[in-house]
Amino acid sequence: MHNIHPSGTTPAMGNPRSLRAPSVPDAGWRNMELLVQLRWIAVGGQLITIAVVQEGMRIDLRLLPLMLAPAVLALVNVATMLILRRRRRSVSNGELTAALLLDVAALAWQLYHSGGLTNPFASLFLLQVVIGAILLRPRSSWGIVAAALAALALLAVESRPLALPTAYAADPLGLYIRGSLVCFALIAVLLVLFVARIARNLQERDAALAAIRQRAVEEDHIVRMGLLASGAAHELGTPLASLSVLIGDWRDMDRFDADPEMQEDLADMAAAVHRCKTIVSGILMSAGEARGTAPEFTTVRRFLHSLVAGWPAAVLDDDFGEDVAIVSDPALRQVIANALDNAAEVSPGWIGVAASRDQDRLILTITDHGPGFAAEILAGFGQPYRSTKGKPGGGLGLFLLVNMVRKLGGEASASNRAEGGAMVRVTLPLDSLSYHLEAPQ
After folding, report:
1. Residue 392 gets which letter from DSSP?
2. Which fold has domain 296-432?
3. How many CB atoms lie within 10 A of CB 376?
């Protein structure tokens, strides 16, 4: 076991501007953060030990060199924390190895000035060897072992003994045994804390991997649906064009021209065919294959007003603020329309649509007066084919909404309102929707 947490990545799909993987620190970052926390514990333990030995046991210590080690470790910790805040990723194995070697050197320095191998706290080298074996690559772990053995060898040859008071000098073995018990308790506590943290990180890693696998499955499902829809749209284009031509020819025939009822039916047929062609064009546009239709440049406010115009029961609460120019994405419009359709089914008399702005994000909420979401829907929100309507293929509306918003770098969530009804909340970064006109060269 060399790393305790994987780096977070998201499979690349769709429009490049929408590929925004969640910012998850990688294994090296998490390991360095753990070393910093353990080093703070070591600094505190060293200061407490020095105070107890100097003041409580009345053993004269060389305070200046002994205090130098925790001071240096504290400064290194502060610098490391500042670096970690600026760099949330990519802490290398070499940097982790250097940090552990510094801890080995600091312990060797303190033992050199406090009795060498006669100091029972020399067993703390074992703790650093265990930490290195868990966090580092095998070659680096052996490097920590070699450094610890070299430090022990040097301490066996040269160290500065402690001047023990008469009460302790008479029974040095008893003092060593009591110190060893304290050292054992310290190592045991630190290992339990360390291993418990490792176990928690492993659980978080497993949860992250499960989420990544689930997302990959969902996105693969979207790709297959998109290919199927795009292929169907291409195949439907030709017969729809033929129907449109035939209906136009029928409307010009003398036998139908004098029949108002037939003309009315042909007009309805022409409108239906036109509607089907519009849907087909929308599918192809969403798949990046627009049939000669230019992207629609609009603004957030016009987009919202045009969106709710198709639902008479929808009430728009516009608190967005200064308007922003965007590119109207047909796919985004469709998935939001699906959410409005769902709200209209359970609350035909009123649909609340609220738009607000949080810095560089659009916050859109859709609420209704219906019965709210079932518990199983909320538990698996955004997963395909989760529906209480009992329709074949049901549950894809929210699935498409969640994944479309995710691909634009945003997020979608659902909840039940305390006063009754359901709420769907969509958060979208404006950068994924806006466009900027370039100045002429």
Report:
1. T
2. Heat Shock Protein 90 (3.30.565)
3. 11
pTM equals 0.47
DSSP states along 341-365: HHHHHH-TT-EEEEEEEETTEEEEE
Q: Tokens 């798949």, residue?
A: 287
User: Tell me, what DSSP letter sits at residue 16?
Assistant: G
Contact, 421 vs 367, CB < 8 A? yes
Cβ(252)–Cβ(267) below 8 Å: no
Residue written as token pair 């040097």: 154
Please tell me the distance from the alpha carbon of residue 161 to that of residue 116, in angstroms, as a whole number. Answer: 7
Count the helix, strand and coil residues of the chain and give each as a percent rounded to the nearest 5: 65, 10, 25
pLDDT per position as a tens digit, 364-383: 999 999 998 888 888 877 77
Mean pLDDT, the chain, integer:
78
- Amino acid sitting at position 209: L
What are 176-231's pLDDT values in tens digits?
888 888 888 888 888 888 888 777 777 777 777 787 787 777 666 666 666 566 55
The first and second tokens of residue 427, run together, are: 């958060």
DSSP structure string for 274-329? HHHHHHHHHHHHHTT--SSPPPEEEEHHHHHHHHHTT-TTEEEEEE--S--EEEE-
Kindly state the DSSP code that residue 394 receives in the 8-state scheme: T
CA-based nearest residue to 148, from 95, 73, 97? 97
3-state secondary structure of 368: strand
What are the extents of the domains in the chain? 16-217, 218-286, 296-432
Tokens of 83: 């670096």
Coil, strand or helix at 189: helix
- Smallest Cα–Cα separation from 225: which of 418, 347, 395, 85? 395
Task: Using CA atoms of 106, 111, 114, 116 in order, give the dihedral in degrees to the nearest 10.
Answer: -160
Q: What tokens were used for 423?
A: 């709420």
CB-based contact 159:115 (threshold 8 Å): yes
Total length of the chain = 441
Q: Count other Cβ atoms within 10 Å, centred on residue 158.
A: 9
Q: Are 421 and 368 a contacting pair, CB within 8 Å?
A: yes
**323 φ/ψ angles, rounded to the nearest 5 degrees:** -70, 155
Q: Is the dihedral of CA 346, 347, 353, 354 positive or negative?
A: negative
